[in-house]
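Let us begin with a simple case.
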Amino acid sequence: MAAIDASLYEEIIIESSDGKRSVDLRFGIVALKYFEDLFSPTLTAQMTIVNTGGTIPTEDGSYQSIYSGLPLRGGERVSIKIAGNSDTNKGLDLSNKDNYMYVSKITNVIREGQREIFTLHLVSREAIANETSRVYRKFSKGPIDKHVKDILKENLQSQKSLKYDPVEFQYSFIGNLRRPFNVMIWLAAKSIPTTGIPGYFFYETIEGYNFKSVENLIAEGKQNVSAEYFHQEDQDFNKSTDRRILSYSISVNNDLLENLRLGTYAAFFAEYDPYLARFSLPQDGKRTLRDFSGTNLGDDPEIPQILSSNGFDLSNTPSRILTSVLDVGTLEKNVAYNYTKTNYRDALFRYNYLFTQVLNMTVPLNTELKVGNVVKCNFLKISNNSKEFDREQSGLYMIKELCHHFDGTQSLTSMKLLRDTFGDV
């Protein structure tokens, strides 16, 4: 079988909130979509269901529909297991107690005669726990990655694994009754890996939770590219059709004005240090993209130059000014801010210029892919009868969003890809 062929639903069972009733949904599914997002701390999914006739038995011997008989009210547990449809696809398994999905809402309900159609929106269990939990206690000075592990275990009661990159410095804070996901995402922007540029992501994949630095994701991805895809106008390339790009579109290509608004090329940070009772000096506050060198998916970062007689480029003048009061000296004694070892300043640059290029792409199903992975894309040059690849557009991309789509006729993987710099290195 090819990766694009329809997949086999091995198990799709929904269980009522009280655990007394369950229904096998395999034969009523019109389409199933599974989602991951590098900016999301939870998995999501959607299932469109068609049900005809009575399904749920009642005490008087009659039968009711799924919608009214289960009944569907939100919070129902769903077990999903889809078999792999090719040698490269191991399938999708959300059928054990640690990674069950739960119904968050029901939409598009249509009921006509003996038939009903509805869409189930599913989330991970931790997404529900996040709304009923608050982080309130003080976290004493310690590694940020340890704080993240503690919040996952204590506040969310999660049994899922956590893959993390160690954070270089220690940090103390108070939860202030914020939701666990909000705290962990807030901590991600403050984290600095032992090597590399500041900036972390906190997100979930089918394998569990991840607290990973941007730099390490790129470095690991370049050493171990998850997949390589080819844009083929015909079949002369002699490449496997499972690695063919079915369609793609470039949604962002170096948005100059937006980059200036975000301070991607140069920004000024006006900070007040309450511990030392002083403002940051001008030489401390100005930061440009040239001030740090990171690991890139392509060539070195490019800063646009404006045509002028003096060779002016957009790193000469900050296009964004940010003001803040530093959170130092509040919870711990003898703490001073190290202006030479910044955190959120460089993280801001790293997050922003990662979005230099944004590309949407659809390929045959590949369940081995996860957000945060790096894939290589080969795009043809736009010219008559050219079979050469465009070196500027081709190259390595990071998966920011991912959707596995299953229906009765085909299986597809759609991705939103990011790249910080141009060129195929």
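The second case is a distinct protein. As before, the sequence precedes its structure tokens.
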Amino acid sequence: MEPEPTVLDSLRKAVEAMPDDVPLRLHLATMLLQAGHRDEAVRQIGAVLQRDPGNARALGLLRDSGPGTAEAAGPPPADPGVISPERTGVPAPPPLAASQPDADPGEARQASHYDWSQAEDELRDVLPAMFVGDGDAEDSASAAIEEADAYDAEHAGLTLADVAGMAEVKQRLEAAFLAPMRNPDLRRLYGKSLRGGLLLYGPPGCGKTFIARAVAGELGASFITVSFADIIDMFVGQSERNIHELFEVARRNAPCVLFLDEVDAIGQKRSQLRHTPMRSAVNQLLLELDDVSGNNEGVFLLAATNHPWDVDSALRRPGRFDRTLLVLPPDAAAREGVFRYHLKDRPVAGIDLAKLARQTDGYSGADIAHICETAAERALMDSVRRGEPRMIGTPDLEAAIAEVKPSLGAWFDVARNVALFANEGGTYDDLAAYLRKRRLI
């Protein structure tokens, strides 16, 4: 009889939480074979062999995974139970010491006659190829050029409703960016130009990229995101060609939100650049933003940076990234949303999100994601010691909060100096107001 679906579901979630845990994957593969899920079992075995190519137990399961083995394997352990906060009843994985036994000589001889051609066919869609065939050098070069020239335009699938909290950020986005685009008649009446872009800045890990995707979803536009590594090339002139190709792809996919992540790396201050190719790349970016031919209609520009004070001043001039929006650490409502998002697919019970949000004031979204991962790891290791899985509870998360410290201190140390001594023209008035509110200056 097939185990309760919840048993396999919780084992799958445990594997997702600890993808490198070979014994756990082998235990899941065994249970899948017993339940008759041969294809999924083969994928789990393939993931094990990717991490440990010589694992004897995985090879044995692969040999036994032919048609009809589900019946031959016999029923699963009796009384698997039902998932509950008190007891799940999932059969415990084998001890670590016994999870990968050394193969005896007889087993080694049997493995030596194993049909590796059949194994390759079974695992072809599971394991990536270790080596690329020689092929034709010219074809490989042209494929590399096509890949370098292609920037994927995707649909974001998000809206600002998916962004928890951050009411002030949403209001600023609506007034400065979204309202003119949603109301073309009023835009024409008031002569509002769509030229220029919006620069999101703030501490790392606070959702700038997520907000950019949500803006694209609000506009129903395509979304292209690029970073320093996608554009800058070691060969002279290639970086400029990459930037031009990027804007051409955005124009062909209009309406399109073009998001430049880490724009301080792409558009560094030219006064700090002694490397001529990098200066040329910044110049090319400025030319594309100016777009004298008027081809940027329908291309909405967003950029994000943790260090706006390192962005070339020419990028901040009118018609370029002339509007800025400070994205601060998540407020209480946003922190609850981040906890809910990262815990929704994990086995949890009795979680007080409001309490956790109060305890994580000053944490970034990335910090909260790390807290959830640490709590899941704590519960998993406790389950290994007990011999049965258990739910993740508030004590696990509180212990993780005590262990994971906020990561934003270094950023605020720099931001404080900028707000106090480099706030020319009131550029960082929003930042200074926040620092005063938090009594950081």
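Strands lie at 154-155, 197-201, 222-226, 256-260, 299-305, 323-326. The radius of gyration is 27 Å.
Keep these points in mind for the review questions at the end of the chapter.
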